[in-house]
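Issue: copy button drops trailing tokens. Both records pasted manually instead:
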Amino acid sequence: MRVAVAGCCHGELDKIYETLALAERRGPGPVDLLLCCGDFQAVRNEADLRCMAVPPKYRHMQTFYRYYSGEKKAPVLTLFIGGNHEASNHLQELPYGGWVAPNIYYLGHFECPPYNSSTIRSIYHVRNIEVYKLKQLKQPIDIFLSHDWPRSIYHYGNKKQLLKTKSFFRQEVENNTLGSPAASELLEHLKPTYWFSAHLHVKFAALMQHQAKDKGQTARATKFLALDKCLPHRDFLQILEIEHDPSAPDYLEYDIEWLTILRATDDLINVTGHLWNMPENNGLHARWDYSATEESMKEVLEKLNHDLKVPCNFSVTAACYDPSKPQTQMQLIHRINPQTTEFCAQLGITDINVRLQKSKEEHHVCGEYEEQDDVESNDSGEDRSEYNTDTSALSSINPDEIMLDEEEEDEDSIVSAHSDMNTPSVEPSDQASEFSASFSDVRILPGSMIVSSDDTVDSTVDREGKPGGTVESGNGEDLTKVPLKRLSDEHEPEQRKKIKRRNQAIYAAVDDDDDAA
């Protein structure tokens, strides 16, 4: 099947679908599925904007509301995960995932409004309960999505080219602190065939060869790909051919193993702010293994009447933005989404939002919403993680990212995007363009993280600084596909524009596609 993967969307659905349509006209056929790696920004109205974890001056309506209202419909089935710039109150209605618009599905988190400046951040934190549940999976995984990169993944790709493009990553790369430690742990544990990420606003590919646990067992490998944000002349979209069972249905289905794990770990859900650790085999817990057994999966299957189809039960739960009637003082309400209610009732698990509502009423765990973005308190009513993810840019500091505590005017510091000027934008053409980056050769994680002149993969680099060589999938197919860029009405200048930091243009209320961020 043909799968398109997008980096940070930042609410630019119209632009993404336009670029996808152009790619389909140029390519061998239609795309079957679109995967978005976070910062999706499913903003329905002005109240949603106030719950987005960005400074108020960057809160501008993009184009998602048109798909929510039914004015437009996504032309391809779209699945997305959350990032660190989301409409927190909207996504919290669907802690187990669900439809945010027809043909657009969110892959599951929770928090509760009204938000203060701490909880508006904690909505995107990595929780130990989420990592714990994912580590119960035993069956092979084809595709894993994360917003931030797994820590250390840059040591398995063309690190030299990465640092040439993003020189301000050097210290974190050398200290091995760039990326998410939780994602790295999951990568080592789950060993998926593909891992797609975004967040750091640069295209980067790597191939991680895992070690076989037992002798005679075939070692698995993960093909990693991170993509840029949705801007002109940037590598934000990639189309891949991925093996797919031709007899499988053409609609979404729940995974029986994951449903079984959700049901087994239901008693571990914690909606208070108290710190606690997950069960482990240390003699202190009666149970520590919550993986799905054949018997438990059979029980869940029977509970669902052997029907794993995801119901198309989207419903409008909040008023939609009307450009002709702006409502800057729209009230923020904690809503219970009927999709979540139905899912929890079918599976026999806790409706997290109902529990949060009761906890709020009984113990007042959620404070009043505050507009101030400089409060750094952490009494967020969340299930905290043992991983250090409490930064405005997840666990990775990226100067090209909006910081929640930034001042009104950023300093006149600039970041060069030299490598982007070598990559053409998508335009109709009869000839296939060359791929600007490839999956790199397998490399062993070095003992020293210091980047030297020869500390890079043994890949050919052409005069434009693009790594050569290819990596093939199991069926011998070349994975080096044409990178897709956002459409632009203007030609690329001879000398690349200097780019201001922190995504300023993404959140600016302008229509010029060439404004860089």
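Record 2 (pasted manually too):
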Amino acid sequence: MGPEAAVEGSAKGEEEGRQIMDQAVNSKVENSSSVSFPQREEEKWRNGKGKRPRRGIYGRMLALAAHALAERQNKPEPKDLWQEPFVPASAWRPCAEQRNWEPSDGNNGYILVTANGGMNQQRVAVCNAVVVARLLNSTLLVPRFLYSSVWKDESQFSDIYQEEHFINYLTPDIRIVKELPKDLQSLDLEAVGSVVTDEDIMKEAKPSFYLKKILPILFKNRVVHFVGFGNRLAFDPIPFQLQRLRCRCNFLALQFVPKIQETGALLLQRLRRHVGLPGALDRYLIGSSAGSSNNESSGSAKKTSKYLALHLRFEIDMVAHSLCEFGGGEEERQELEAYREIHFPALTLLKKTTKLPSPEELRLEGLCPLTPEEAILMLAALGFRRKTHIFVAGSQIYGGQSRLGALTSLYPNLVTKEKLLSSAELEPFVNFSSQLAALDFIGCTAANAFAMTDSGSQFSSLVSGYRIYYGGGKMPTIRPNKRRLADIFLKNSTIEWRVFEQRVRKAVRQTKHVQARPKARSVYRFPRCKECMCRTD
């Protein structure tokens, strides 16, 4: 087995390992809609109730990392640290904008979608709905987003994405309207059997399912309402032009609203510590704001500077749902179990009725999220210098500031959007987690290098896919193989730094191979395929 196949097989293995608890994942939204903690209690969950030190089992390794960073502060970084293999990567160019069909008249009825989850899940649901609308020759209503007390976000489509651009850009593909005809508005959709939930559709259903099961409902009632619609359309097999439409929606039709673009532009200017030098992806992320020059400095523009973006997927929900342990002992176990009982009741029941893998087995299989300590040790081992500027997304990590201490002690130039933007600039977004996630998306996607800590994260998948699509072979993404890293971290009490460094670099280097999208894998994450991108060689 070659290195590309080994890496792909490992990543796929991690995803398959999660499938035993798939239904429990979705139960977070479905089963907790009537339960919410007071704000003070939520802070306890995020920050951890105790004040235990967070160096924990990695105290020795963190000390070795600090020494190594001090020793090489004036030495050059590894040559490939900020690069991906340019020649094979640059052989692919975006071409999802190319169309080879007539517009759909949408005469078979209307499709409503109320997508659940956060911004990333909703984005995927929207693009899948666009494809289903074309498949069924139906008219799509502007998607709506499901409110949940878990996400506590009332944002709708037009609060995040430019509605008119979405409608107009996709007009050559499908018909999109803002409301149902008058004669359908009063229809009790549930009573007539037009409400279709995720329980009614298998995960990654094939187009044939929609033609066989959903089209008859459209013919009968003229309307179908999908509720949830999380990952309910397969990636293969699917006709070429429908797959291309999927890419066209994700990479071209969904543009953030000016409010998000303008604040995103401020974020990028401060991350780069200069004014007026847009990055390679800026115009796709922040539109006309990419060319604006705010009067933040009266002098001439400084030389642009590189920054690394790091997505820490270590929020309380991820930590609790993983069923892993993270060095906090009995207090941590009780804390996470209490959280699961409230937010993941189906998972709690599953634990009581089914023999699940132990925390140790989960970790060896690469199914545990990297802790902040493990993530920062990985970056140090890869060769990022102490003075590297690092933007951290997903900063509401379990353990709070005490856990972030391990990161800032090694990399003092570590920032979040909350540090770079004033309270007045963030105020319009404070109660809207999806809009805040959009700012993180901009900061991560535009980075000179992006490091994910969980290959199964929808956010990281969308960011890395966007960087592939528009990056021209110059936007590297670090995708750690958690199974291999777990084996390395198990030796944290005895391994020497030089050996640790070598093994981490080898494990990560193998994930940098440029490859076409593997069969049945996401085009949002792997856009290097003939439907989304064209080869120039």
